[in-house]
User: What shape does this take?
Amino acid sequence: MNIRENVPIAELTTMRLGGPARYVIEIEEDKDLAEAYHFAQDKNLPTYILGSGSNVIGRDGGFDGVILVNRLRGIYVIDSDQTSIRLCAKSGELLDDLVEYSVKLWNGEGFGYSGIEALSKVPGTVGAMPVQNVGAYGQEAKQVLHSVCVYDCRDNCFKHMMADELDLGYRHSIFNTGDGVGRYFITSVTVELRKTQLTPPFYTSLQAYLDEREITDYSPQVIRDAVAAIRASKLPDPAVEASAGSFFKNVYLNETEAKAAEAKGIPVWDGGKVPSGWLIEQAGLKGKDYFGMRVSEKAALVLINDHAKSYSDLAQAREAIVSAVFEKYGYRLEQEPMEIGEA
Assistant: This one.
């Protein structure tokens, strides 16, 4: 177990902002967890769990506590039958590596199991799947999540939790709400995938991509390749341009609000969802620079840190964008990435 002191949060997150964390501990094995939490408890310090840092914003004041960086690794098959397979992945694995593993498995008839292929190239770790109920291009974690293993730092023990115990919703779970925040360190995730393939109609941009290329093979690998190509054309690579992926949540409307929005020409998808990227783009903000934060020219939902030096810069940029969209459409956008540290 490696313990470091005074590590800039900017070095641990893809938005590259944030002051120093007092301690950083890398968790490489399950057995490290009890020792790490005891270390924090002995010093009366709070803890924060961090994966790849792709959906977290660091604040200027840093974090006077212990950041636990998830380095748990491993993907393996638990069991399978004629129609499905269960895969277990350690929570520190990259989500995209789990997707790649699943689509390359021989299923007895061909390559690939279906259920997470549309999550290809989503940044972040497997551990983020249940926390955020990660979703993209018509698939989301709760459709395939079977169970998770966690370390409960309140009860100081490992637990096994089934998917129906996790209260999964849009970017919502017990892990990011109420007293569940910070209580559980997810050590592994088990998903159940099917020996099948997706069928049209697909998510709008995915359907358009397939139609334009006259692709009628919807096997998991083909869908993975298509999604990867779409994301590459629209979304900046955090390794090249500092960002935190999708920065704003989509707006959800009730039935009455949805009808009113459609009457105004605002796109409303299944479930009353209005795409925030569309709202930002239609507000004329694409490519705009605010306090060193640029609204991506490829995808208006993404903010890129061109030369912002502080969380304060980001906060001012966020407010400018939220205010512009609210003034034009009356919807108040909410930030998707979580935050760590003091403002």
The longest strand covers residues 184-194.
